[in-house]
Write a structure and sequence with these properties.
Helices cover about 35% and strands about 25% of the residues. It is α/β, with parallel strands linked by helices and about 525 residues long. The strands form four sheets. The protein has a seven-stranded parallel sheet with strand order 8-7-6-9-10-11-12, with helices on both faces. Strands 14-13-15-16-17-18 form a six-stranded mixed sheet, with helices on one face. A five-stranded parallel sheet has the order 2-1-3-4-5. It holds the Pfam family PGDH_inter. GO terms for molecular function: phosphoglycerate dehydrogenase activity.
Length: about 525
């Protein structure tokens, strides 16, 4: 099978070398397409590789009926409609490590250039103006750098700032006191950081929560004479508020590599001599551009060859060693979902998944998504996959809960799925038998031992002599061969179930006749 990859932004040959070397991958590089042309071209491609130029909109995604993966050669994915990609089951991968060093170095270059007014002084010299008095700067030593966003790049910037003997205080929602102490920085809230910093640098993604995070109110709580750096994403800083803060003297300088609109259309910020700027050069080194392209190319190859990726943006990644342990349970979890969909016959309102035994100590998110895929595919078809299963469940109003316990009741690991519907609650539990594969070992409160594959009949009946024989006789008359049978009961003479594995699906007429037999309470066909 050949997979077709479209590259719509310039990537170096070295960067796409993994794609060139892989078998069964056809590469098309067209980097000068208009949005309209890209929309006409995208049909039939399995993968799309972009940088920041191409806008991967919902409209484009809806035209890409064959698209399976989008690779962003860089960190930020604000040019990709993640919700639309997730909704359509398309994995989005990026390169979170590839330009970390480049971005951190550019941030420090901007910081030092701003502190010492190097661009302004150079511009004066270019105009044959030797002026030393106007360009007196400030030292970094003993100043406080406030870092808002303490991920990979934020931490690299902090390490470099400490090398300049600066004090560092950081904010990040995932930063703890222990981690801050280990990294040799102080930490606090955004307000704490802004109040004490002499220099503020932002390194957050652009989200609804971070848009205009640095606004008029934020500037008001900063020190007089503070200096600002943004080499992260345009829009984190409110540019109008920044303009006013510089004009008022509150902000002594700003260094900007990114802007709310790119290419930049409103240049009034650059009319202010206190502001220096570059045209989004944070990742613009030969090394970084090659590295990010290699990273996403390798993920695309990995996806087409093994079905796994390292740096998914919309699908949580799982360490390789954990994935190896949970992978044998993928098929079981999906079949449990499909089994319960057939068993209930109506839409789920709530799903509770309980992982017991060894699985309780592992990352089981992929198994939950696989189970939901099996649960939803019966009604929604092939549009449901690992990427969008949780999203679709949320859209449908299905409450999904995970529970873990080390007690597995005699099994090494056990997955129990409970589905609540308007008609009641049904349960099924499954495990992997050593050397024998997957088994369903419990349905509702009945113990069974059923291989979850092929054509099954779930029969509810009263536990009376002769019932099993009558079921077998009727199916024989209908030329339906029984491969295996499992019987479970609550107590002698009470309610009971039969789980029959049959060689071919039973016709509707046969099911109606079964349901009419004495002591039979219901018959449900299940196809796995």
């Amino acid at each position: 099978m050949t997979f077709h990859v479209l590259i719509s932004d310039p990537l170096s040959e070295e960067g796409i070398y993994p794609l060139r070397q892989a078998n069964g991958i056809n590469i098309v590089m067209e980097t000068d397409l208009t949005p309209e042309q890209l929309g006409e071209r995208i049909e039939g491609f399995d993968a799309l590789l972009v940088r920041s130029q191409t806008q991967v909109t919902r409209e484009l995604i809806e035209k890409a009926s064959n698209l399976k993966i989008i690779g962003r050669a860089g960190v930020g994915v604000d040019n990709i409609d993640l919700e639309a990609a997730t909704e359509h089951g398309i994995i989005v991968v990026n390169a979170p490590d590839g330009n970390t060093n480049s971005a951190a170095e550019h941030t420090m270059a901007m910081l030092m250039s701003m502190a010492r007014k190097i661009p302004q002084a150079f511009h004066a010299l270019r105009n044959q103006n030797w002026d030393r008095k106007s360009y007196v700067g400030v030292e970094l030593k003993n100043k406080t750098l406030g870092v808002v966003g303490f991920g990979r790049i934020g931490q690299e910037v902090a390490a470099r700032a400490k090398g300049q003997r600066m004090n560092v205080i950081a904010y990040d929602p995932f930063l703890t006191a222990e981690k801050a102490e280990k990294l040799g920085v102080d930490f606090g809230s955004v307000e704490d950081v802004l109040k004490v910093a002499d220099f503020v640098t932002v390194h957050t993604p652009l989200l609804k929560e971070t848009k205009h995070l640095i606004n008029k109110e934020a500037f008001e709580i900063m020190k007089d004479g503070v200096q600002i750096i943004n080499c992260a994403r345009g829009g984190i800083i409110d540019e109008n508020a920044l303009y006013d803060a510089v004009k008022s003297g509150k902000v002594a300088g700003a260094a900007l590599d990114v802007f709310e609109q790119e290419p930049m259309v409103d240049f009034r910020l650059l009319d202010l001599p206190e502001i220096i700027a570059t045209p989004h050069l944070g990742a613009s080194t030969f090394e970084a551009q090659e590295s990010v392209a290699v990273d996403v190319s390798m993920d695309v190859v990995s996806y087409f060859t093994t079905g796994t990726v390292r740096n998914s943006v919309n699908l949580p990644s799982v360490p390789k060693e954990i994935m190896k342990k949970i992978e044998p349970y993928f098929d079981l979890s999906e079949r449990l979902g499909a089994f319960l969909t057939d068993l209930t016959g109506v839409a789920a309102e709530e799903v509770n998944i309980r992982y017991a035994g060894d699985l309780a100590n592992m990352e089981v998110g992929p198994l939950t998504r696989n189970m939901l895929k099996g649960l939803l595919k019966r009604h929604l078809g092939k549009q449901v996959n690992d990427v969008n299963a949780m999203y679709i469940a949320n859209q449908k109003g299905i409450v999904v809960n995970e529970q873990k316990t080390t007690e597995a009741k005699g099994f090494t690991s056990l997955i129990t799925v409970e589905v609540k519907t308007a008609q009641g609650t049904r349960k099924a539990a499954g495990t992997l038998m050593n050397g024998q594969g997957a088994r369903i070992v419990k349905v509702d409160d009945y113990l069974v031992d059923v291989v979850p594959e092929g054509h099954l009949l779930f029969v509810r009946h009263n536990d009376r002599p002769g019932v099993i024989g009558r079921v077998g006789t009727l199916l024989g008359q209908e030329n339906v061969n029984i491969a295996t049978m499992q019987v479970g009961r609550s107590n002698a003479g009470g309610d009971a179930i039969m789980m029959l594995s049959i060689d071919r699906p039973a016709e509707a007429g046969s099911l109606e006749q079964l349901a009419k037999l004495e002591e039979i309470q219901g018959v449900t066909p299940i196809n796995l």
